[in-house]
Amino acid sequence: MLNRRHSLAALIAMGAAAGAAAKDRCEAFTPERQQAKTPEEALQRLKDGNVRFASGQALHCDLLEQVRSTAQQQAPFCAILGCIDSRVPPELIFDQNIGDMFVARVAGNIASPDIVGSLEFATALAGAKLIVVLGHSECGAVKGAIDDAKLGSLTGVLAQIRPALGQLNYKGVPTSKDAALVQRVAEQNAKDAAAHLTSRSPTMAGLVREGKLKVVYAMHDVATGKVAWFG
C-alpha cells in the first residue's frame, strides 16, 4: 500500500511538473523572459520544439491568449531565416507560438541586404538571442539554381544560390534530377547564408563576439518533419 501511495504521489508530481513546463512554453515572451534567455537556451528550446513536432506531441496553446499578451509589446527570443516553401512553416516545425520568433522568409533562404537589415533589427534592437538559417530538402529554389533557371526577378535570387554549387567542385553536368546534389547544395547554401549574416553585418558580428547572439544553420526534412542542426 505504501509503495502504491508513493507511486501515486510520484505520478502526481510528474504531472504537475509537466503541466508547469507546458504552461511556461505557452506563456508569451516578455522583455524580462527574453533577456534572461541565453543563446544556448534559445537553441535548445527550438530543438525541443522540433522533437515534439516530429513526434506528434506538439503543444496546444491558447493562441488568442497569446494575441492578447503580445498586443502591446513583443520580445521574441530568436529569429529564423527560412525559405518560402509551404512545407516549412517555422512556427509549426519548431512548435513555437505567437510572439516567440521573428521569421524572415525568401526563396532559397538567402541573406540579401533586406534580410540582413531585418535581422539586425530583430537582434540589435529587439533583443533576439539566436538566428537559425533554415534550409530544407527538395528545395525548388536550389533546384532552379542548379539548373541555372531564368525567370524575371527570380533570376537574381537564384544567382545568389549558385555559388554554393561552385564550392562543391561537382564533376559533370549539374542537374536538379540528382537528389544527392540538391541536398548538398541546399546544405552549403544554408551554411553560406549563416556566414553572410555576420560577414555582411558588423552589428551582428559584434553581438556574436560579445556572446549575446548565436548564429547557426539547420536543415528541415520535408518527408519526416525533423530538423538536423549544424554549427
Describe the structure.
There is one protein chain. The chain is an alpha/beta fold and 231 residues long. It has one domain (2-230): Beta-carbonic Anhydrase, Chain A, CATH 3.40.1050.10. The chain is 52% helix and 12% strand. It has 11 helices and 5 strands. It has helices spanning 2-26, 31-36, 39-54, 63-70, 90-93, 113-125, 140-146, 154-159, 162-166, 179-199, 202-209; strands at residues 78-82, 101-105, 130-136, 214-220, 227-230. Strands 2-1-3-4-5 form a 5-stranded mixed β-sheet, sandwiched between helices. The longest helix has 25 residues, at 2-26. The chain is globular, with a radius of gyration of 20 Å. The protein starts with a helix and ends with a strand.
List the helices and strands and how they pair.
Elements: H1 2-26, H2 31-36, H3 39-54, H4 63-70, E1 78-82, H5 90-93, E2 101-105, H6 113-125, E3 130-136, H7 140-146, H8 154-159, H9 162-166, H10 179-199, H11 202-209, E4 214-220, E5 227-230
Parallel strand pairs: 1-2, 1-3, 3-4
Antiparallel strand pairs: 4-5
Average of pLDDT: 93
Structural class: alpha/beta
Query: What gross morphology would you assign?
Result: globular
Largest sheet: 5 strands, mixed
N-to-C CA distance: 52 Å
Q: Can you write the helix and strand succession as a string? A: HHHHEHEHEHHHHHEE
Estimated share of beta-strand residues: 5-15%
- Per CATH, which architecture? 3-Layer(aba) Sandwich
Query: Which strand order does the major sheet show?
Result: 2-1-3-4-5
Features:
231 residues, alpha/beta, Beta-carbonic Anhydrase, Chain A, five-stranded mixed beta sheet
